[in-house]
Amino acid sequence: MQSITRLFLKIFFFLWSFVSISIYAEIPQSYKALLSKYDFDKNSYSFVVKNLSNPKEEAIIFNGDKNFNPASLTKIITAFIALDRLGPNFKWRSDLSYTGVVKDNTLQGDLIFYGRGDASFSVSDLEDLIRDIQKKGIKKIEGNLILDKSYFGKLPQVIDFDDDPMRAYNVLPNAISIQANTVNYKFIPQNKKIKIESKPDLKSLRIKNNLKISEKNCTSWKQSLDYQKANNSPPEEIIFQGYLSKKCLNKEIDLSILDNSRYFYEIFKHLWVQNGGHFTGGYWVNDSKRLEDNAIASHVSKPLGVLIRDMNKYSLNLMARNLILTVVTEDLKIQATENDVNEYILNRLKSLGIDTGNIFIENGAGLSRNTSINTVSLMKIMDKIYEHPYMPEILSSFSILYEDGTLEKKMPFSKVKKNGHFKTGSLKNVSAIAGYLVDKNKDKKLFVFIMNDKAANKSYDFQNDLINLAFGSI
Fold first, then answer.
1. For the chain, which residues make up each domain, given as ranges?
2. 234 within 8 A of 147, measured Cβ to Cβ
3. What would the mean pLDDT of 128-144 be, rounded to a whole number?
4. Domain 93-159+260-301: assigned CATH number
5. What pairs with residue 97 in β-bridges?
6. CATH number of 27-88+305-471, picked from 3.40.50.1000, 3.30.1780.10, 3.40.710.10, 3.30.540.10
């Protein structure tokens, strides 16, 4: 019996050593040494380093054919396909129109807002439209506000990603959006209490402030903050409770409190009256096909080449989800839904010669537990980006290490810093970073790292060391 056990152990250790060798076989000794320094599960992560200045230099690939959830690295693909299909000068257009007739400064009919997925549309943009049509002679509306969302097809209505549905990252895609469907709440310590300011400040949305002030430091302040909607609506009320340190200076959070359509209506009604108009009507939503109407005013967004900087640098999920839906709608002339996204992206990647057998993209933002890709496929996509005429627009949308976006003040000990443009990605148990850097020899390199593990949020030093090694400083 003992001899059988010894034989089994010998076989086990032989096979284990073979697996260990195969894991490390493709990477240089300097990378093997770095991986041995950290006690992470070797199957929980993957990385790629490729010298773009020297095509003859073999890429450094670790676990390159193993699929991972890339989180917000998905936005790299969204930005690439969007710029390729729409161009950097593409602009979203939103229209105001009406039914009925205008007589004696009164609209005897309904006012219609037609949206095309502009996630950058703001309160000030809507106010500009309102002032425009009031100057054209409409001061009173006898009908209702119609929100025409027929540009897209049927989109998700229920947030089921995690247990924090009011957070801004969870806002669902929509043909009509204003202020990213969020209210900004700012917390200001004042003597022995916390003052809360909201923007926009709507009468239909009340604040109950049960926050207490503490003497603790300000780290992890969001974990000490609790918020929930009251059940005694309408009017809607949000209750803040928990603690905030008096050392926290002007902290703020964006929360989505109201239904998208109701939120737009409340802001419209507030602005219409504030600018001298009269409106007591309600609202309803059209999402089948565009209504026949009389155009009266339009708003045009900033160019796509500008807006993707905000999308990638600050990892804006709503903008990314709306963007890929816009691409599909414009390109295929259909009312796109998120069920169309994966097939569309895979077809575009195939047209570029990229094998898509291992790729699944659930939405344009990467807010998904199902999205999956390996680092070799992402490397090939980033190769195509580097060769593309719109490469500068995409690279300028990535965060500059330690300078701005999601990497502002991050990795302070990196030797790369201003020499690296990266997109980050994070979910629970997911940490990822990918981008381009100029190494100490002035060679341009592509870098990808993805970890899926409970320890992923502890991998920042590891990522930093890998980037420094790719730079040539270790």
1. 27-88+305-471, 93-159+260-301, 183-255
2. no
3. 96
4. 3.50.80.20
5. 112, 295
6. 3.40.710.10
Whether the upstream peptide bond of residue 235 has omega within 30° of 0, thus cis, is: yes
Per-residue pLDDT tens for 385-426?
999 999 999 999 999 998 899 999 888 878 888 899 999 999
Task: For residue 95, give the 3-state DSSP assignment.
Answer: strand
Per-residue pLDDT, 233: 64
Cβ distance 188 to 194 under 8 Å?
Answer: yes
- What does pTM read for this prediction? 0.92
442: left (phi > 0), else alpha (psi -120 to 50), else beta?
A: left
Structure token pair of residue 250: 């002007």
| Residue 431 token pair | 């940490």
- The 8-class DSSP code of residue 328 comes to H
Over residues 177-200, the mean pLDDT reads 93
Q: Residue 438 CB: number of other CB atoms within 10 A?
A: 17
**Beta carbons of 181 and 174 less than 8 angstroms apart:** yes
Give me 383's structure tokens.
């190769």
Distance between CA 180 and CA 196 in Å, rounded? 20
Q: What is the DSSP letter of 429?
A: T
How buried is 448 (Cβ within 10 angstroms: 0-12 exposed, 13-18 middle, 19+ buried)? buried
Residue 473: pLDDT band (50, 70, 90) is: confident
Tell me if 79 sits within 8 A of 434, measured CB to CB.
no
**Residue range 448-458: mean pLDDT, rounded:** 97
Output the DSSP codes for 452-463.
ESTTGGG-HHHH
Please give the torsion angle defined by the CA atoms of residues 136, 137, 141 and 147, in that order, rounded to the nearest 10 degrees.
-10
Residue 293's pLDDT is: 76
- Structure tokens belonging to residue 129: 């439209």
pLDDT over 60 at 21, yes or no: no
pLDDT band at 10 (very low <50, low <70, confident <90, very high): very low
Q: Edge-to-edge strands of the sheet including 145-148?
A: 283-286, 145-148, 111-114, 93-98, 294-300
